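User: Just a sanity check before I run the rest of the batch. Below are the structure tokens for the first item. I only need the designed sequence back.
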């Protein structure tokens, strides 16, 4: 009974299953984040900066960029199979962007253990300019 109930925690994910799960993520859907690539330890997603994603000084809100980073960390870490949950994410905002810019976030796994993973993320614009750098730590509660 226990194995059946927890089976979804261990299902491997590909881009299509990742997109399906992302489709259930209301915030990602609202922000217009689209998962473009996903495999164990790697993921990429894009987001167009819309007017509702601008802050009070008319540049991309840091929370929108952070959410894009969170999505690619989730995709790269969950693609291994077991559910992975973020424990900590730190981000450095390097360059401001404005409405209409297409942001691409790419997560790469730096380290993987039985229970944790560390992911480095670059966010770039359509001119390949570095917009933000982030690092995330995930925990896999279901791995015994």
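Assistant: Here's the designed sequence for the first item:
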């Amino acid at each position: 009974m226990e194995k059946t109930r927890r089976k979804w925690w261990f299902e491997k994910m590909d881009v299509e299953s990742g997109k399906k799960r992302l489709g259930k993520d209301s915030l990602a859907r609202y922000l217009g984040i689209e998962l473009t690539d996903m495999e164990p330890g790697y993921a990429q997603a894009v987001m167009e900066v819309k007017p509702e994603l601008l802050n009070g000084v008319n540049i991309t809100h840091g929370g929108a960029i952070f959410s894009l980073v969170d999505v690619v960390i989730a995709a790269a870490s969950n693609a291994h199979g077991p559910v992975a949950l973020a424990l900590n994410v730190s981000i450095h905002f390097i360059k401001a962007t404005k409405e209409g810019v297409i942001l691409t976030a790419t997560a790469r796994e730096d380290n993987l253990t039985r229970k944790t993973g560390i992911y480095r993320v670059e966010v770039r614009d359509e001119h390949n300019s570095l917009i933000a750098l982030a690092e995330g730590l995930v925990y896999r509660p279901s791995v015994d």
